[in-house]
Structures are given as C-alpha cells and as structure tokens.
Amino acid sequence: MITGSGDDGTAADGGPGAGVVRRARGEWARHWRYPELPGLDLLRARYVRHSFPRHAHDGYVVCAVTDGIEAVGLPDGVVRAGHGGLVMINPEVAHAAWAGAPEGWAYATLYPSAELIAEIAGETSALPGTAGFSETVAEDPRLGRMITDVHRAAEAGNALAADSLLRIVVARLLRRYGGPLPARTPRTAGAGAAARAQAVLLERMADPPSLEKLAQELGTSPFALLRAFKDAYGMPPHTWLTDARVRRARRLLEAGSTPADTAVAVGFSDQPHLNRHFTRIVGVPPGAYRRERAAQPGAARG
After folding, report:
1. Which of 180, 205, 229 is the last residue of a domain?
2. Residues 101 and 228 in one domain
C-alpha cells in the first residue's frame, strides 16, 4: 500500500516508479497501460487539490484508497472512502471525485474494460446478464492491498504475477460485491430525444450546435432537452460533450496524434483548452498520457 509521498513523486514504499507526473503540493500521478494486461488501464496517484469533474467511463473503475479520504459524487449522492476502502463504479455512471480531507487522498486504480470483466465473470461467477457491481463503496483492506499488488507486479514487469493477481482480484470483487447490471431502459418520454442529441453531438463534435438549435432540430424545447439529457446520461449536454471529447482525444493520442492536432480534431479551441480539460478528467496531462502509451503500446480504448 502507499504509505506516504514525497515531492519527487514517489511513495514511501517506492511509489509508482518511472513515468510519474509530478504536480504541485506533493501531488503525483501515473496513468498507464501494461502491454501484458490487455483491456486494463492503471492509475496510481496522490491528489490534494485536484478534483475530477463529472464524467463517465465506457469500462469499469475499481480503486483502493491507500491514504487520506476520497469523496465521490454519484447520481444518488456523495460517498467517501478512506484508507482500506474500495470504490467500484460501473460503465457509463456519471461521477465526480475530490479530496474528502485536507490532506487529499492516494489510491491505486484499475480500469478494466467491459470485455475483460465479462471474460472473468464468465469463468468464475454465475451472475446473470452483464456482470457489474451492486455496491459502490466497501471496507476491504485485504482486497485493497491486492489491487496495489497488481500495480507493483506490472511496474516490475512481472506479467505472470500481474495477470494472476488481476484475475483473482476481479473474481473476488464480483463474488463479494457483484450483481447483474440493470437493463438500460428509457426512464422519461424525452429519452429518445436525448439519444438523438447524443448522436448529433458525437457526429458534430468539432462544431456542435447551440442548445436552442439542437432542440429545434429534434423538435423539442431547450429546457425539455436539458432535463431529458441529464436524466439519461447524468450530465447536461455541454458537460457530456467535454467528456466525449476527452475520450476521443485519448484514442487519438494513443494512435500517435500530437496534443495540438488532437485539440483541433476533437473541437477544443486550442491545446491549452485540451490540456485543462484532459488533465481534470484523466488526472494527467495529454502529453504525459501520450508518452506513456508510446512507451507501453497497447490497444486503444476510450
């Protein structure tokens, strides 16, 4: 587990090693991918003043808090996890995160893809439908230590240990905290308009219409569209679009695009805007993210 951090971006136990992004106020982060663990992104970090705006992932999030307190804002309210706590978030669940204590928080996070979770669930559980997590927060120091051990093994280049530990961790998480994901069914009469709005924003990401023009195209009113979109996706359209732009930026950076070209391609006005939004949502700047992917090639995913 992480027991402390220094200004050089390392923890008392050695920290995340090469590739760490050093930040002000003792913050550090490393967001990377180990080629021997396909379908998985890894993040180890300590944040104090950094906060993650509302966003979502197309895969799962499993983090072990190793120091301090993390606060997570979810559709149903705010949850907190301290040392020894786990946070588990299913795909496409809108959430934000910030320090729940003045000293901030440190954690080790796994981002397994939907395909990876489905593969492990198929081998080890009898969960019906699509497997996911039925609990968001749990106190489980032992599993938390195993999550940090996945990171250590990957950082050491020990593919056998990293892969074995990852599968054991996911299987135990699903056994203790798993359940079938609820079916995605429209909850409001405006769900269809929200889905069409999402498609328009994806297609015209670099030059999106105003809310009023978008509502006119869809035959609804601006406020009705706002309500329907937030109900369907947990975010208003402009927040969702920023998150979608960052997701696409990740794929472009993984494919070798420069941050400057990526900013233009996804619709940010310039590279500083990409830097700001990307860092807030991903936790590291786009340049550092691209360097890690160049050093540790793997399949691109959002």
Report:
1. 180
2. no
